[in-house]
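Researcher: Here's a chain I'd like modeled. Treat it as a single chain, no partners, no ligands.
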Amino acid sequence: MHRQYYVYIVTNQGNEVLYTGVTNDLARRIWEHKNGTAEGLTSRYNAGRLVYYEVFDDPQSAIAREKQLKSGSRKNKEKLVEGMNPGWQDLSEDMFGWE
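Model: Modeled as a single isolated chain. Structure tokens:
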């Protein structure tokens, strides 16, 4: 079975917080963010809106990309989101059929 790895950015309703993470199960991880079971920053700021993601075939590449994004500026993250998702829509709604 071929496993994929995801680097993702979630935000809250007002886009005040941009959280970058990595996972091998994007649906489960976003569900955790949406339901407040992901501890820390995302639960504190109710950051459960998936606004950006990238797919990788190996965990090392995904982790390296996550570190690169986390060390970058907010402005660079905003450019990535706007390139993929100019309206800052919650991508999980269409991907997983959630509202």
